[in-house]
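>> received
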Amino acid sequence: SGNSGAATRTVNVVDTTAPIVTLNGDATVTVELGGTYTELGATATDASGNVAVVTTGTVDTSTVGTYTITYSATDAAGNTSTATRTVNVVDTTAPVFTSSASFSAQENQTSIGTVTATDLQAITFTISGSDIVISSSGVLSFVEAPDFETQTSFLATVTATDASSNSSTQDITVTVTNDESDDEDDD
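>> returned
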């Protein structure tokens, strides 16, 4: 009879699977303040073949903080995936004193001198004892002007602390010198 029939089926081959992004190295990295951050990158694999990885984000190693680097990959079908790396910039280095530990001050005056220290962050100073005070910028002064005939030497410990709470100490000695003109006035 020559009758025939036909049917068609459409098969769509689609890609709905996003690429897999794999970090090179650890997902969390720690860098010392002032150090160097080396970008390790990431790779991506996909059933459709190799795909490019786009990296976004920056790390400022001159500022303590937490930074996020994002890695994205998009395949030919428009499927996208991402991975992130956390970079922690930390300061674990204590301030370093650059001033002398010995000071000389003439009697009957309160001025002593200045303590200095270096660090990549702001430093605050504190001092032990009650005879000597220190300003936020490290300037040392007697609370009361000393008398050479009463006491000729003062000892104290200065502590320098940075914004990350790292600290170091320096023992200082202040030697009081005689104001001979004052002795002549006493005669």
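>> Helices lie at 180-186.
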